[in-house]
Specification:
Structural class of chain A: alpha/beta
Oligomer: homotetramer
Number of strands of chain A: 13
Shape of chain A: globular
CATH class of the largest domain in chain A: Alpha Beta
Strand order of the largest sheet of chain A: 8-9-7-10-13-12-11
């Protein structure tokens, strides 16, 4: 398949290129960057020297790119993918958007949280989280690839919500991410000495991944969910750990919790169930598309606590995009994604 | 005052020495270590070269040390301080224990969580968290210095619990600590390459600081509290951030929350109220005895979220011990503790 | 090819497994560990869950393993590989030793620096640094895989020594390594809080990689070389940067230096010449088998300074072993090694 | 003494404030920043909350500031301090410049390396490295505070150069610094994910600290010295380790090297001689004004290798400035500087 990356110089774009270069059935034909048009990608990301040296293009002539590609992957800030989606509507090219433009069923939710008006609200689109929306992804023309915190959090809570095991208004998600999740723009808060040996929260009560998690979990149980989500910044490069809390419904025993996870995920290659009592660590999945899950039951408080670890740039972005690409193409879902994590 | 440090080679003991060397009214007369008896402390901790080169002693003859000291600070694993407390009962020396032996009103709680039988259960003792137990500390003979996670968590929630603003069974504390909190023993999980670029939870539903937090908060409201506490390990050296969640009682407005913090802490030098909407970072307090607080109200979920940052080795251990020492001596509470944090 | 890993639980052994799992022509049939015999490897290294769950074996019956394997990779402390080499002498199995036992032409040098007597001194063996000893590797039965610091340092200086451009007694190599190079044994100096925000030298004038570098460079020019080598520990997981200094011979112009690099490496896939004036960074090669080189000429001092970056666990250990394996098998040298580096 | 900080929002300026707040004989009366004029310093550096909340001033009216101050400390980019020096020439205020403008005896050297024309070339000035220029500092009106790399490097080599023990053209200084040395401006190369788990060299053959080291060492032996200096960036916040190499002159024995260090530094409080064979680590001095030295002799190569560790923001900048201030005021040199290092 001929694929193009629109916005190749963000961390997610670069990670996507890393994965696609190792994919046996994808050929990267165009990579664009408006700020570095004409510069070889391997100057912007020197680790690609000898692996991908072709110059970055502009996305100005997106129609030509669309014509020349089977798939385009978009890694742009909110509000830009929808313009591309509109512009290439007449072409047969399929779109996997790593941003948020196509993630919401209801664009008014998107508009409220992202403060951007949606210009392509009637686009047919599918939420790109394979373990839950696989069937819809198969034939989708536009896939709104799930976000990083959201992937870790939804996968952690999905079995419990789906099986009706928890009080829906008791959900608290306390998530922690490495700094690559904040992107590659140099800003004081992410300046090395500011973050080193430092830890902080941000986006309390207003982070944009909140409604995305709520949407997917609500889909699973048919009831609107409002939940607490708090992100934190960890002084490391990669990885997300999501610690998810919920009150168990009164008569729920531990083995029903175990069963819910096993039932939902037993055939999912990229979900590794570490079991009740286990502690997944972000380094267990680094560089890979795995999501590792462990869960705990606190009999004193009657809560279930689920721990979920992913690599934010892989299962939380580029790897998930490739997984969706594989599904959309009818390929084996693991194609280009079956590398072992990199440890230590 | 003549002071001695029993167990001077743990990180808390070394930090205590750092602070006491800069204290104008304390002279360190004995420092003990059973594993390094006879070795100059500055060989075990080379940063003390030229500052404290005297050999470490054994605590075998604790009676002599007691006789020679006005205060002894104890930094030993659970179960050891009580033996010392018993042994020096006849002496006028006062004790500040940085461990858990003297932290609990009810030693059966201690015994249940620490799996150690208490041999000094009838000792008169005071819980060493100055902002809440200051009056009792003044004349205490034995002070059970508050733990690290507990200090951050109790100070975050105390105003809300005291003023009755939150549902007591809705408390979730998600805490994150630098690795120095795990002590100086070299073990595989804390081996550098294992933790670097890695993040994980541990002790879910069973960490020993849980009952300590519950005790202090219950003291403030007169009702037994059972809460959720989850610690995590951050790949950094120092610092704790505690993210505390609770449901607000129905009629509680934001300004009542603000007022609760202001009322309780307005005269507390070591509590820095950063206010509603603020994000304290662990680096803001590094090396200092401050506890920085910020809080947020989520109107969608009706929860209050409090963020609390301390240096686990200072306000979470050695600095708190010095603060307690100052109170017990009738000194200005800031003596030896008024250094600015070290940033970056 | 059927391959076995003897000593699979060190970092180099685990990295080797990561690479071999992705190798299209290698099947790992045995993995041994004396300390964890019987334990699934994925318990010792949880990132392998689902990828390699078979139990670790003992190497006690090394003859059976030899019989069952085309190649054995050995990752054991100095002095152990030679015992295995002796024990399997009668078998057709080929050996790639990641340790030092088979690296030296003259075992008395090995014995002097390693303080171990060599029991297999007459073994036919080849030094396993493909860019210099490729032809010999092709048919070698025993390959002494080059060390990590040595690989970075030899590749940096080889063109200059080979072409006679520098004063041989002026060589100073100042090398810096991430902590994974120190192995997985938990010891106080590598305890996380001790190394974090810390930097130090070690092994000045006596590090064991010194004679190995000297041997290879002497091979290239036919003259015995004595040089200065100093290793340092960087608070990071992976990567080596070697900064190499030498005085240029009187009449050597900059373009002759450039030419020396180009001539020697222009067809080497794993050597990426970044050119004169360039600064390779360890992250440019992380997770890959590349060695990136940049060089500088200081006209004030008449010195050439070469900067060399590798991933110590890949080109410095496991990747090099796979490269040697490919050569020894007559495979394409890039097989299983053509992944892009992982950045950031 | 009334002191002012011109350029208080760089890392060195903030560190200076930390030290001066703890200095018993200094009162900070003005702190300026052109980019943050009017903003409380504790908003720019939140760790100062409650400790220094006064608004930053402009330096536009430098004459008033000069009139109101006994000392001004300047922390500005190259080329700005000389303008201030000129402007306040008529005032009795004394100047300690943390930048390079007043470091060179010969301003043409400054102009060649800094590409700035010197407008105050005839100013009487003293190089501010107390251990070597103490007497001159006592009565100096303008002190050009020594740089960070230079302090570590000069102190390492001074005894050897002074006693004539080494070949002057054989000096190689390989230095490594934490990232705070690069300042607080957010730029891509110092963006957290770019540097984390990464190591690199920079400024080979052209770093501006080179002529400063050469000047001081030449002063000590009376012969012009040309040397090799290479800086590197370590993924940590603070600290410099300088590894210094030189060939010993033919008849120099190890004890003469030891003696040179002892003779020169035996009465220097801030120089801690760890001795021959020792490995100073940057963490041993973190947060303090110490310079720790260890040295090694390699009999194979006839080289001496000196290791020198400082905190780049303390002995390499702000601490040194306070030390110079103390000397210039006739105070005890340790005033405000006798804190223990912060470890871990």
């Amino acid at each position: 398949m001929r694929v193009s990356i629109i916005g190749a110089t963000g961390y997610a774009g670069a990670e996507l290129l890393r994965l696609l270069l190792g994919h046996p059935k994808a050929e990267v034909v165009h990579a664009t960057s408006e700020s570095h048009t004409g510069t070889p990608l391997s100057e912007v990301y020197p680790h690609f020297l000898g692996l991908f040296d072709q110059p970055l293009e502009s996305m100005e002539d997106i129609e030509s790119i669309a014509e020349d590609s089977d798939f385009i992957f978009i890694g742009l800030p909110a509000g830009h993918a929808m313009e591309i989606g509109l512009a290439v509507e007449e072409y047969s090219v399929r779109i996997i958007d790593l941003g948020a433009d196509y993630r919401f069923h209801d664009t008014s939710v998107y508009e409220a949280w992202y403060k951007v008006q949606h210009s392509h609200a009637d686009a047919e689109r599918v939420y790109g989280l394979a373990e839950i929306y696989r069937n819809a992804i198969k034939n989708a023309r536009i896939i709104g690839n799930a976000g990083c915190y959201t992937t870790a959090s939804i996968l952690a809570l999905a079995p419990l919500v789906k099986e009706g095991l928890i009080d829906l208004d008791s959900i608290v998600i306390d998530a922690k991410s490495g700094v690559s999740g904040a992107g590659r723009s140099a800003k004081l808060p992410n300046h090395f000495p500011e973050l080193y040996d430092n830890f902080k929260a941000y986006g309390v009560a207003n982070h944009r991944h909140t409604p995305e998690i709520e949407q997917a979990l609500s889909d699973l149980c048919g009831t609107p969910i409002v939940l607490q989500f708090t992100p934190h910044l960890v002084p490391m490069s990669r990885g997300i750990l999501s610690t998810c809390y919920a009150k168990l419904r009164d008569d729920v025993a531990a083995d029903r919790v175990d069963e819910a996870f096993n039932t939902m995920y037993k055939n999912e290659y990229f979900i590794r169930l570490r079991g009740r009592g286990a502690y997944p660590e972000t380094k267990y999945v680094r560089g890979s598309n795995f999501c590792d899950l462990g869960w705990h039951i606190d009999e004193r408080t009657n809560r279930v606590i689920v721990l979920s670890a992913i690599d934010n740039l892989v299962k939380g972005a580029a790897g998930q995009a490739v997984q969706n690409f594989n599904i959309a193409c009818g390929f084996d879902e693991k194609l280009g994604l079956n590398m072992a994590p990199m440890y230590p």
